[in-house]
Model the fold of this input.
Amino acid sequence: MTPSTSLRLALVGALALAVAGCQSGRQSQVVLSTKSPVELRAMQARAFDTADRAKTLRTVIVTFQDLGYGIDKVEPAAGTVSATKLGKLRMTATVYPRGQSQTVVRGNALLLNPGVESQVDDPAFYQQLFFEPLAKAMFLTALDVPGTEDAPPAAGAAANTTAKP
Amino acid sequence: MRSRIRIAGALLALSLLSACQTTNDVAKAIGKPPENAVALRALQTRRFDSQNDKVLLEATTQTLQDLGFTISEASSDVGVIVASKQRDAHESGQVAAQIGLTIMMALLGGVNTPTWDQEQTIRVTVSALPVSNARQTEVRTSFDRILINNHGHAWKAELLMEPQLYKEFFEKLSAAAFLEAHQI
Done:
């Protein structure tokens, strides 16, 4: 081994160590639900008869506050809001248009334990502890979203979305 | 000796019970609305005679900064400001009690790791929502805190419900916005 080769190897080794040093090593493991995507969507999404997406997002925020959550992050352009309750329960809600006259709210909850985040997949949790208070705050009924509905439209496609029966 | 067996039995039963709780059970217990939700909303909400939620958000930012908070999230599009601050949570009474308990456990042949509150992160979420059919904006403020123990772990969390805390916050906000705060 020539001196220059060993020098290079030493440099690569030092670089690898430096990169490894930057990693936190405390990333949580996420345990996702074993339920089907259709089941999850049915429990996590509801449609409201309003085209006012911004107002819906604001009402989701106020509902989170009513339920004792603190807001972590809001992205009005993407229509998302994340909130945490007592450092143990995190909810992320997405608000997106459905057709010309409806807005869909989808919530996803994770239970935060040290090192492990587990997805909540009980329909009663979403219905009683999120959509019912949200519907009251919206003064609107939370409607089931038919199972044929897909995920939120891609950016830019929202305006072109057509109403589905 | 018999009492020690009883304590061990109770601890075992407790750990078995907690092991039976699923993610969904725990989430439903934590996700329940606060018991006094209506009173809490009244405590946390004030109405201001202005439809300009941006002005109220600016005044909120100033008020929070005056109170030593650091803004961690702000979105004027949806009328939200989130801020936090760290404070010492050390109480000598709690520390003394924990050390006393550790000594007592050691005398009884048991082990206790003394744990007490070391630091706290106080978080505040403020949202401003224009009121429909009224020239008013509703401002809702909620404070909570997470306690970090002397081992560096977050071990307690609670919503802050002291009326004085909210009263003082809204008084300062009212002065900063040059608007009167109405209770709902």
Observations:
- Residues 29-160 of chain A form a domain with the Alpha-D-Glucose-1,6-Bisphosphate; Chain A, domain 4 fold (CATH 3.30.530).
- Confidence is low (pLDDT under 50) at residues 154-165 of chain A.
